[in-house]
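Open question from group meeting: does this chain pack into something compact, or does most of it stay loose? Before anyone orders reagents, we agreed to write out a predicted structure and look at it together. Recording both the input and the output here so the notebook holds the full record.
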Amino acid sequence: MPNEQTILLVEDNPDDEALTLRAFARNHIRNRVIVARDGVEALNYLFGADGEPGRDGADLPALVLLDLKLPRVDGLEVLRRIRANAATALLPVVILTTSREQQDIYEGYSLGANSYIRKPVDFERFIQAVGHVGLYWLGLNEPVDSAVR
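Structure tokens returned:
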């Protein structure tokens, strides 16, 4: 699996962060992982403190794994801002959350999430889910070239 692509993991729960990173390791996903522990950190990483993308398209993450229940700015608002900006509008965003709320699923897709995955409680199932996400989004999916953005 290519490892030059960056993954932005937006996760406020240290246990879920550690499990996700272990699942990456168990699936041989060696991509650079940037962890944002709340919505503000995620937005600052993507857009800089001034709200404008501070990096060129080639420096954007290849994949955003986004929890919904975040402090300061929730995941749905992060997704809304990602989709509202031309530089990040096409970034693959996978919601990775414990929420089974139909309203969250509906809003996530309405705001442009590429996928909605409920975190399995069982660690082995979680490892499998993360492996599938990595294989698809980092290996099989054909992203838009950053020069086109």
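Observations to bring back to the group:
Residues 123-140 form the longest helix (18 residues).
Residues 3 and 30 are 5 Å apart (CA to CA).
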